[in-house]
Write a structure and sequence with these properties.
Blueprint: H1 4-10, H2 18-22, H3 44-52, H4 55-60, H5 62-75, E1 82-83, H6 90-94, E2 100-102, E3 106-108, H7 128-146, E4 152-157, H8 159-168, H9 179-184, H10 186-210, E5 214-219, H11 227-251, E6 259-263, H12 269-275, H13 278-281, E7 285-287, H14 294-301, E8 307-312, H15 320-338, E9 342-346, H16 356-369
Parallel strand pairs: 1-4, 4-5, 5-6, 6-7, 7-8, 8-9
Antiparallel strand pairs: 2-3
Helix pairs in contact: 5-7, 7-10, 8-10, 10-11, 14-15, 15-16
The chain binds coproporphyrinogen III.
């Protein structure tokens, strides 16, 4: 992977760079748009592939992961980005934990971390090349398949969100097994978060060297924490990732890529203050969920040194054509008033029962109403 320059030269030139420009703070002629989980269960072509392959088999087979990544790009000419098909839970797998994807339950980790003693069970000196090399291969294949149509986003889970899965043994409504770690074992929790962050950083670097043109870190459970615990535990581990990625890429002579932090639900004004300066956090763009207004967030941020992504309510896609159009128009107006770089997205993932044609209409509406006059 040392020869990223040669590899980069072998890819067709990028024809649509709206995403990369908005992520650097440019006021683009219209907002670039993509959707979290755009490759997924609302697409019949995805369900067809899933009939004959398990979820992790899809992630671990580069030809399948790449084909799934391209499905929404082939179907929707209005998408401005692709995101590699994989999952945040490949990091616990690389650390040596078993992760199953159960049809009705979602992810299950049969042997969760119960006390800090259990951290010893995790692999040390994880080689992402060896454990997760399939992802890098999938990225390189996908860059070829994209043929420069849109940029490719690489990603990982944020340490706090991954720690929550690793301690709960799966999803949770109460977080009664993971959050008490922060109260009972604060130092061990910080050590665990950094241990996870190190693997995440290596994974992101590997994705960039394989061809990812932008990165996103998903902190889906950030909003479960008090603003104090977010600042004390979750954010420092996210900063460990961004700065490690930037420093390794710099050492390799790579120009670097923009990184987005999606800290779902971490919406207090004091938290936004901490996130307001890209130079301090190492994140160029913040992903917002739908419970905040873009104008209000811009005010909390106090300056425009960070770009924003979001933040349509995913259920707008159940709103039928008229409902979708009205809401895209309304929120686009807010975003235009807020100014600065804007990447249009949902405030969380697209849900399984959305009609594919409604997703297409949503994208069309964003193109129309996000135009700057
Ligand atoms: O298209 C894309 O966005 C790229 C692929 C992607 C997936 N998961 C595929 C997936 C991405 C970026 C993720 C991230 C992810 N995975 C997150 C962070 C974003 C978020 O949603 O908050 C989290 C928390 C996970 C963990 C995870 N993976 C859960 C909770 C589930 C079950 C979800 C559910 O809705 O049932 C998954 C499974 C998963 N990951 C699916 C897909 C397409 C569906 C699984 C299937 O096909 O059976």
């Amino acid at each position: 992977l040392g020869s990223w320059r040669e590899l980069e030269k072998s890819f067709p030139p990028l024809k649509n760079d709206l995403l990369l420009r908005a992520a650097k703070g440019e006021d683009t002629p219209r907002a670039p748009v993509w959707v979290m989980r755009q490759a997924g269960r609302y697409l019949p072509e995805f369900l067809e592939v899933r009939k004959s392959h398990s979820f992790f088999e899809c992630c671990q087979t580069p030809s399948i992961a790449s084909a799934l990544t391209l499905q929404p790009i082939d179907r929707y000419p209005n998408l401005d980005a692709s995101i590699i098909f994989c999952d945040i839970l490949v990091v616990p797998q690389a650390l040596g934990m078993e992760v199953l994807m159960e049809p009705s339950k979602g992810p299950v980790l049969p042997k969760p971390l119960v006390t800090p003693e259990d951290i010893k069970r995790l692999n040390s000196n994880v080689s992402v090349e060896k454990e997760l090399g399939y992802l890098f291969e999938a990225i390189t294949l996908t860059r070829k398949g994209l043929a420069g149509r849109v940029p490719l986003i690489g990603f990982c889970g944020a340490p706090w969100t991954l720690m929550a899965y690793m301690c709960e043994g799966g999803g949770s409504k109460t977080f009664e097994k993971s959050k008490p770690w922060l109260y009972k074992y604060p130092q061990e929790s910080k050590d665990l978060l950094i241990k996870i962050a190190d693997v995440c950083a290596d994974l992101l670097v590997g994705q960039v060297l394989a061809g990812a043109q932008m990165l996103q870190v998903f902190d889906s459970w950030a909003g479960e924490l008090t603003p104090y615990h977010y600042a004390e535990f979750a954010l420092p581990a996210c900063k460990h990732i961004s700065f490690k990625v930037k420093s390794i890429l710099k050492e390799l002579g790579h120009p670097g890529v923009a990184i987005t932090l999606f800290a779902k639900g971490a919406n207090s004004p004091s938290t936004f203050k901490l996130l307001s300066n890209s130079e301090e956090t190492g994140y160029d763009t913040l992903g917002l969920d739908w419970t905040v207004d873009p104008l209000e967030v811009r005010e909390w941020l106090g300056n425009k040194r960070v770009n924003l992504q979001g933040n349509f309510d995913p259920t707008v896609l159940y709103g039928d054509k008229d409902g979708i159009e009205k809401e895209v128009k309304r929120l686009s107006e807010q975003w235009k008033k807020a100014g600065g770089g804007w990447i249009a997205n949902l405030g969380h993932g697209i849900t399984p029962n959305v009609k594919p044609e409604d997703m297409g209409w949503f994208l069309e509406c964003v193109h129309k109403y996000s135009k700057r006059d």
